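sanity check this:
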Amino acid sequence: MEIYTCPMHSEVKSNKPGKCPKCGMDLVKKEERHHHTQHYHAKASPSHISKHENHKKEKHEAHTHHTEDIKRKAIVSSILTVPVVLYSESIQNLLGFSIPEFPGSSFLSPILATIVFLYGGLFFLKGMIDELSKRKPGMMTLIGIAISVAYFYSLSTLIFGGKEFFWELTTLIVVMLWGHWIEMKSVLGASRALEELVKLMPTTANLVKNGEIEQVHVSQLKEGDVVLVKPGEKIPADGVIVEGQTHINEAMLTGESKPVPKTVGEKVIGGAINMEGAIKVKVEKTGEETYLSQVLKLVREAQESKTKLQDMADKVAYYLTIVAITVGFLTFLLWSLTSGNFQFAVERAVTVMVIACPHALGLAIPLVIAFSTSYSAKNGILVRNRIAIETVKNVDAVVFDKTGTLTEGKFGVSDIVSSRLSEEELLRITASIERNSEHVIAQSIVEFAIQKKVGFTEIEDFKAIPGKGVVGKVGKYQTAVGTSLLMKDLEIKTNKEVEKKVSELEAQGKTVVMIAVDGVLEGCIALSDRIRKESYEALKELKKLGKKVVMITGDSEEVARFVAKELGVDEFFARVLPHQKAEKVKELQSRGMKVAMVGDGVNDAPALVQADVGIAIGSGTDVAIESADIILVRNDPRDAVKIMKLSTITVKKMIQNLFWATAYNIVAIPLAAGIAAPWGLILKPAVGAVFMSASTVVVSINAMLMRRELR
């Protein structure tokens, strides 16, 4: 018998041709698999991954379409419900009004209720069937049973007489449809994390072939090819530099805050940006073997393994379903046996079923979520996953990525040390001479000088000394800017105070350039990834809330230790690669802690998904945002504190609303069942409806009061 397997997933096997359920690729005969695998690896990951992501895009579009469909059903059902309510005898008697009748008006309510039942109610009936097939009855089952019993019993009253429930039926469907729509609107669409990851890769590459440069699609690259990467271009594949030297920006891939110097023999990562000199790279990895693809794989696996928490309202609905069915059946059985009045027994059982499904329960959670989501959005916080609102208040540890989260994520001037001249004058002299250099450090100093508006001075006799620095005459000053080697070569007169400061700054992991004026060491300028001012306040507030603060970074031990000490971080991990970041989160979780991860880069994506709650800085890469449960739009770590306070209030309101939405059942269900009938007290459906309406109003007002508590 022939065996067919997937070129990328060998565990997928079939005895006939078809598609791989994991990636959508065509299954091939086992003996052909090697050929197909080679073909795949000759292709770049973006073209293959896009097949994965087309499915995610389709799911997102389906989610949007479904939301609009529910809204349309709610609008149509609401319009049709108005005449049903107005022509209801129960409502007219309860409110003391009458409405003109016309020939056939007695059939208006049954006809319109039938349309609402089939058009709006079908959604809940399908949901009920789905829940029952999974043996997990919940809200859909409770609603489905209630509307079905109410509808078919009401139809029977047209023939056999009795109390109809058409208006209760239609209003129940309308309220539940709007509640479901509110809930869906409060949760953003499906994740596109993998699609955003792929966008980091360039689509074309400059292939060096027989001494000529040929522009090709990255899918054509294979191991051993040599590509030319010009300044400003992205590296098309993982490889090793075979010619040239440059600085590479890997911040979005490895978390390294400053551009990394690279020369012949050093490895580079596909997707990283070449900052300056042109280089030639020998391709070592393509397809699924690339660094970016491995990060992608980690994100996908973490997403698939993450469990979904059951909604609190569904739990309540589950128990209410059991109670309603049990009490309804016992009510029918007992009244049939004791009274002999079949119609009365049916009416009591139906009343129990209808009352047991409170309108308020359908709004209890969605209204709170809608208010909290609206509030958070206005305050720079976007909630993608409603479960995160419930979870984040209970986290024990908050893990921050350093680069771009606690720090600005920009390589800039952090310290200026001057001996005789003012700091402003030293910066002006240094920036003036560095303006002639294309080096990354030089550009950062010049940008800082422009921000400070110190001005520039014309220079003479400019000379760049490769790997050491620059020299020249700035106005009246003979100036040298560069490394300690440059100072030694030029026999610059030492300055112990400046040299001591240089050592201190370098111990903090900062990049330091030394400045000599007229043959004497005048000062230095240190560059680093600067700490955000907001980070100090954020970490202070988190500690007040009793949270453990952890920092993870791809930077060096020295840089990490300095930032951790400066901010008062409880624990830090340095030189951590992307897959290790997810592992560090797992390690914290293995200690029994619930973890919230705050990050902004591609390298944070697996950890964001692995954490109990993923919080992304909004200005970070799209993949981090798409992998997170909560997004901090303002790029302010203090919002991590706000979301925890919001979580506490939100969960409190949820519990209160669930109480108000269901507590009246303790009284209403027994009365509906006729427990007080011997004393002449029988709960009429219309009175039960008032109870339901009252609980709905209480739930709505309680949700609105969140605004006052969140101020």
In short: The domain at 202-235+238-285 is CATH 2.70.150.10 (Calcium-transporting ATPase, cytoplasmic transduction domain A). The chain is about 50% helix and 20% strand.
